[in-house]
């Protein structure tokens, strides 16, 4: 009647890994839709993940209302970029010579990618299956090129478009080598396409003709509010406290008043019965967007999704500031 795939992985927030449940391929028999089978299955999956130690559930939605009803909130974005290969033709002062590498051996690539996980928000620590999806999106291995700092994987040109399957280009040298590689296809293709974040380095370097082809949001569902807050990292040098209330219709023990103390980039959380200051209040889906940094506390407050006194909102603003969450992976 209904089916889904799910697995455990780590997703990085605030410079630290957070255990999450990834959900994919959710489907219900068309003849049986509307009878609650999908909701019952998802509730069972969430309960199983909670028991297994996941503190968040993450998915790429086909529809929003269904998942919002289960307590999911927008967690981050995936941007689809494109540019003509000539946009990368400007010579770079530093450019590495990228050498061919084996796309079926992801172990060295994971090491190259690790610093990006700590610097950003939302990037998953890929499982073997996610690496296969990233480097073999059409079933056949992409052409992989790398140096000692980064890599880029590209698919064979098709209909005068060149698709970048995956990339990790953290240094000026590897970035220069990648742009030189892409510019070399200007006689064969009209557009280069790739997935990235809002501050994607290839997009920042592209010249005339850069386009944002699409922007998709992925969803997060907190399963254990207290554990999630203690697993993630926080801004270095910040010492702050905040008190807030979370409401969760599916519970998981999430409903209640919390006091969060942040120091030394770590969070300590406690559930409390009484408070001496007015707490901020929010539904679980709003907490999801605040937790990942997809929406700031002040933006949620102005939108009427987060309630409280301005001084408490400002505390949450400082605690959950950081890089905009994104991930290139779809599942």
Automatic annotation (TrEMBL):
Domain Enhanced intracellular survival protein: 225-328
GO terms of biological process kind: aminoglycoside antibiotic catabolic process
A matching Pfam family: Acetyltransf_9
Lineage: superkingdom: Bacteria
InterPro entries in alphabetical order: Acetyltransferase_Eis, Acyl_CoA_acyltransferase, Eis_dom, SCP2_sterol-bd_dom_sf
Molecular function as annotated in GO: aminoglycoside N-acetyltransferase activity
Name of the featured protein: Enhanced intracellular survival protein domain-containing protein
């Amino acid at each position: 009647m209904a089916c889904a795939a799910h697995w455990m992985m780590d997703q990085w927030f605030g410079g630290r890994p957070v255990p999450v449940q990834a959900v994919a391929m959710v489907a219900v028999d068309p003849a049986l839709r509307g009878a609650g089978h999908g909701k019952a299955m998802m509730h069972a999956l969430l309960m199983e993940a909670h028991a297994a130690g996941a503190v968040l559930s993450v998915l790429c939605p086909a529809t929003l209302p269904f998942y919002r009803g289960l307590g999911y909130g927008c967690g981050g974005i995936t941007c689809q970029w494109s540019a003509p290969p000539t946009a990368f033709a400007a010579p770079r002062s530093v450019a590495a010579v990228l050498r061919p590498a084996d796309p079926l051996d992801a172990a060295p690539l994971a090491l190259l990618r690790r610093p990006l996980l700590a610097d950003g928000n939302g990037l998953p620590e890929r499982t073997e299956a996610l690496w296969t999806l990233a480097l073999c999106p059409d079933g056949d291995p992409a052409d992989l090129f790398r140096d000692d700092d980064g890599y880029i994987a590209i698919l064979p040109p098709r209909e005068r478009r060149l698709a970048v399957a995956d990339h990790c280009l953290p240094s000026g040298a590897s970035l220069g080598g990648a742009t030189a590689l892409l510019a070399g296809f200007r006689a064969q293709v009209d557009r280069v396409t790739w997935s990235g974040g809002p501050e994607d380095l290839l997009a920042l370097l592209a010249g005339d003709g850069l386009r944002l082809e699409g922007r998709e949001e992925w969803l997060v569902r907190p399963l254990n509010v207290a554990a999630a807050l203690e697993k993630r990292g926080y801004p270095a040098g910040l010492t702050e406290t905040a008190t807030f209330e979370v409401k969760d219709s599916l519970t998981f023990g999430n409903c209640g008043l919390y006091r969060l103390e942040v120091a030394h980039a770590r969070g300590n959380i406690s559930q409390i019965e009484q408070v001496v200051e007015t707490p901020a209040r929010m539904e679980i889906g709003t907490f999801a967007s605040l937790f990942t940094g997809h929406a700031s506390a002040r933006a949620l407050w102005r939108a009427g999704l987060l309630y409280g006194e301005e001084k408490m909102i400002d505390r949450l603003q400082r605690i959950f500031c950081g890089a905009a969450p994104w991930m290139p992976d779809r599942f």
